[in-house]
Amino acid sequence: MAPVVRARDLKVGYGRTSVCAPVSFTLGAGRAVALVGANGSGKSTVLKTVLGLLDPLAGSVEVLGRPVDERDVTFRREVSSVLDDDAYFPALTVSEHLYLTARGHGVLGAQDEVVTLLEEFGLADHARATPVSLSSGQRRRLLLAAGFARPRSLLVLDEPEQRLDQRMRARLADRLRAEREAGGAVLIATHDPDLVTAVCTQAVHVSDDASRVLSPAEAADRIARVAL
Ligand SMILES: Nc1ncnc2c1ncn2[C@@H]1O[C@H](COP(=O)(O)OP(=O)(O)OP(=O)(O)O)[C@@H](O)[C@H]1O
Fold first, then answer.
1. Residue limits of the ABC transporter domain (predicted)?
2. By alpha-carbon position, which residue is closest to atom 26 of ligand 1?
3. Residue 94 lies in a domain
4. Is 219 among the domain residues?
5. Which residues line ligand 1 (CB under 6 A)?
6. CATH number for the domain including 40?
7. Is 163 within 8 Å of 86 (Cβ atoms)?
8. What order do you get walking across the sheet with 154-158 strand by strand?
9. How far is the CA of 58 from the centre of ligand 1 (A)?
10. Ligand 1 centroid distance, CA of 80 (Å)
11. ipTM of the modeled complex
């Protein structure tokens, strides 16, 4: 069976300019890979390329055995992503956002799923609020909850720890570990060493010189040293 993601000598960037050394990694079902590296090293650019929002400059990336095409129905059905963008419908409430996402992807019992997600992401008291009246951390929780509101084989998150308090970070780590243990594949870019060790089975260090595959412990150690 094809891995969920396979990147081979994948060169990413904007126009003709690459932003980091080519990356290679394989992500299977039930596994989680973290992209780690300094600010501006190219992690988000790799994620956008895996999601088909940017074309590879060289090398290849396949999702579920097929070249990435974000317009492809199968791709859109199987891949859930939360990038660092405030993508909201301003007139919809928190609850409506989640319901629309779930129903739009054919979730049976969408209403119950919404109630569960509101609880899990600490949004129950804000179910009827619109995004503009939420704090930035609450908006972030909403985006993340929407990522979990729909079926998926692959979950791609760009720095999911951003703007979350410690309690929510720990809860997110539990949720992501459960995702993996249930057979899902998780690809994240992160600066959070605890998230790497709690969730990931492998890490890829993204940088100007050769990108390297690291164990979660090595990656967490590298993040901690950069932070000192
Ligand atoms: N739309 C764009 N056009 C041109 N260059 C860009 C664009 N977006 C990002 N870059 C550049 O690409 C490089 C990699 O950026 P990227 O956002 O992938 O880094 P990152 O590792 O995710 O950083 P961070 O940890 O700060 O989020 C940076 O030098 C950045 O300035």
1. 5-226
2. 39
3. no
4. yes
5. 14, 19, 37, 39-45, 189
6. 3.40.50.300
7. no
8. 79-82, 154-158, 185-189, 32-36, 202-205, 212-214
9. 18
10. 21
11. 0.98
- What is the per-residue pLDDT across 112-163, written as a single tens digit (0 to 9) for each? 999 999 999 999 999 999 999 999 999 999 999 999 999 999 999 999 999 9
H/E run at residue 177: helix 166-181
Kindly state the DSSP code that residue 6 receives in the 8-state scheme.
Answer: E
> Cβ contacts of residue 50 below 8 Å, gap of 6+?
5, 7, 61, 63, 68, 156, 187
Mutational test site, ligand 1, from 11, 44, 50, max ligand atoms within 8 Å of CB: 44
Copy the structure tokens of residue 134: 């939420």
Give the phi and the psi of residue 7 in degrees, each rounded to 5.
Answer: -110, 130
| Position 208 in a domain | yes
Residue 120 lies in a domain: no
Nearest CA to ligand 1 atom 25: 39
pLDDT band with cut points at 50, 70 and 90 for residue 88: confident
Ligand 1, pocket-test mutation among 10, 41, 159, most atoms within 8 A of CB: 41
Largest CA distance in the chain: 48
* Two tokens, residue 170: 């720990």
Amino acid at 62: E
Question: Tokens for 9?
Answer: 């000598």
Its domain, for residue 196, covers 5-85+153-227
With CA atoms as reference, report the closest residue to 7 among 21, 33, 30, 26: 26
